[in-house]
Amino acid sequence: MSRESHAQAPRLLDRVRDKLRIKHYSIRTEEAYIDWIRRFIRFHGVRHPAGMGAQEVEAFLTHLAVAGRVAASTQNQAKCAILFLYRQDLEIELPWLENIVQAKVPRRLPVVLTRTEVAALLSRLRGVHWLMAGLLYGSGMRVMECIRLRVKDVEFSKREIIIRDGKGFKDRITMLPGSVAEPLQAHLIGVRALHEEDLRAGYGAVYLPYALERKYPNAAREWGWQYIFPSTKLSVDPRSGVTRRHHLDEKGIQRAIRQAARASGVVKPASPHTLRHSFATQLLESGYDIRTIQELLGHKDVSTTQIYTHVLNRGGRGVMSPLDVC
Length: 326
Fold this sequence. Notes:
CATH superfamily of the largest domain: Intergrase catalytic core
Number of domains: 2
Number of strands: 5
Order of helices and strands: HHHHHHHEEEHHEEHHHH
Number of helices: 13
CATH class of the largest domain: Mainly Alpha
Low-confidence stretches: 1-9
Largest sheet: 3 strands, antiparallel
Helix content: 40-55%
Structural class: mainly alpha
Shape: globular
CATH architecture of the largest domain: Orthogonal Bundle
Strand order of the largest sheet: 1-2-3
């Protein structure tokens, strides 16, 4: 690597990080974009991106599909990261990328558990993992929407949950299942005690999105802004360097659901997202309108929701097998 490259690369990536944060991208997206940009630069012998263009971008993305055999979603994320670099940081508009070998998009149906399988899975969970799984299945939330829930966003009197900054930076309202309302209230008693303990120790300030921390300096310590599922230990915020209590890591609930599925004899590849799929499918089975389900799930287009009509347990789209009418 040349001395010039050593000097340029850190400045370039730091600028990209700043642009991502200005536009309020999540830290996971920030880390993924930075990694793809770094891989793109290394793929072309550590050349500066300003000296490259559409041809080099196409070569890298084609390499991912052909040699790397990555999924279509992975190739698309790499493309978005590189285009962000050129458009937002270098302010270069690339011509249409038409020579990319596109990774194949598999047409798979979502994995859906039956009501019996869900009940068996939930029976193997305990404590906070049971509560989170119940919310995922009972409300249709995505796993990170559940983990990032704040106290103020649960309306017990209305049996509603307000999802803030969901996918696509959209807010929406979904249901609070009655069967988890009382256990959730009991859980919050313990969370509040933990928060008050943090305050006495000089901590207790939670992360606030956007510029709310500057606009409302005391809000970070208020009870309503606290995470419903806080981490068991304090940690250092990688962006600000502030020590505070963040939310739980999603790996915990992912691992717990996999283990519960195995222990309960469920042979399908169950995950937290499987509970969301099961929520939608079983609402359709119960006769609820697909537009209502679309809003509860937060889908941008109803065509995304319609995939659940293909997994309804109705014997091949409602057609009776000739073997059953013999």
